[in-house]
Amino acid sequence: MQMPARLQPQATQPLLQIRGLQAEIDGKRVLDGIDLDVAPGEVAAIMGPNGSGKSTLAQVLAGRDLYRVSGGSVRFDGQDLLALPPQERALAGLFLAFQYPVEIPGLSNVYLLKAALNAQRKHRGLPELDAMEFLQRVKALMRELGMDEKFLQRGVNEGFSGGEKKRNDMLQMALLQPRLAILDETDSGLDVDALKAVAQAVNAMRSPERAFVLITHYERLLEHIVPDRVHVLWQGRFVASGGPELARRIEREGYAWLQDGQTQSPPSPSSES
Question: CA-CA distance, 228 to 210, in Å (whole number)?
């Protein structure tokens, strides 16, 4: 399979800069001093076993109050991200695709999408779209994602299959055009066709101004979305970083090598057999 071309991240200040981030839930520390930079144009993949803190990191960045930040700092596009409420983080350009998208019965997709887009446009000083302009835009995106227009009138994710929910998340992302998109195990439970649809949506949006953080257990997503950097989270800390070859090592060996204390950088691609 031919891999999508990778964009070279811009040599500039990080779009996302995390220093010493600590977070806990119910008095239990889950993140134990996270440091991470993600540059504009970069696709960063975060891998790790269950319970390592991957989804906690995503939820903390999005502002979910279930978690308590007990130390460290996060700057997003020059702003103190932790000082912003969740809605302000979204308006600033941060997007989170959930591992398990929630259903909102009674609230139609079309209403949610139009309200979210126009709130964002207002925040950016742009005129709101009228109903005709909005429908033209959203229907064009739905065709690209292989979604039936009938989903616009249904309740948000109500009765959707797993693949339909993830496509719906990609529709929201494509419509809102965030500066930073965090995909929290979006590949979880997807069949091949749905996985390819998610990858196609991400690859179509790669640009020098936008960054992605892909949280995943498996290398299969990274076969379709080639990351610039791969970071391994283990017991609340990043213990290894490298290029796509690091994901391939995990695919071959699992995470057992972390238990053996082998947290050095992986071999370069040229040294692999």
Answer: 13
Q: Measuring CA to CA, how many Å separate 122 from each of 91, 99, 125, 139?
A: 9, 29, 5, 22
- Give the pLDDT confidence of 191-222 residue by residue, as tens digits: 788 888 889 889 999 999 999 999 988 788 89
Residue 156 C-beta-side C-alpha neighbours within 13 Å: 16
CA distance 244 to 219: 9
Amino acid at 88: E
Pick 180 or 266 by higher pLDDT: 180
User: Model confidence at 260, in pLDDT bands (50, 70, 90)?
Assistant: low
CA distances to 17, 23, 33, 69, 214 from 73, rounded to whole Å, are 8, 11, 10, 9, 21
